[in-house]
Amino acid sequence: MSTIPSSPSRIDGILPRVAALPSGTLLANALRSRSRLGRRLLAALALPGDEGRDYAGLTTRGRDAELNLEAYGDLAYALAAQPLDGGDQVAALAMYDRLARILGSAVPERDQIAHVRLAALFGDERRVKTLRRTYPELPEAVVRAAEFELLRSAAPDRPERFFPAFGAFAGWRDVKLAESGPEPSLLG
Q: 50-67 pLDDT, tens per residue?
């Protein structure tokens, strides 16, 4: 990946070769190398003619019909799973909202899971409920994990509100929070 030129005109020149790669190859390489350039290439594929500038700005650019939804989902996943900048996960959440609006329950499962996890990470209970209706086939473990994350995000300094429910879900019958210790979430 490091030999790929970074100027927009040169990126456009290699897009046909990148587009011909097997599905998921560019995403895998971008994640493995923590590559901003890989994200720019995904953005350029996601919105042809946009040249991959400001990949996080793809949340609103272009008409829905112009988007290559597979590349758009791959870019959202890269931003969600491996944020390189402070706004990457916010951008990924907005991109997933757009993808859900376009595809509904046809959003690939990987992206449904990432979407729900991001909404829960940001403590957005209302969005999580909406997504549960949008994605009715979500695995129950994902739904439960989102519920636990919402509990944790509502009171991050009070693990006693979250831990018993999570422990029951995980089947941890003899694990308790320590009464005292250097960290509030130290397991006893």
A: 765 678 778 888 899 999
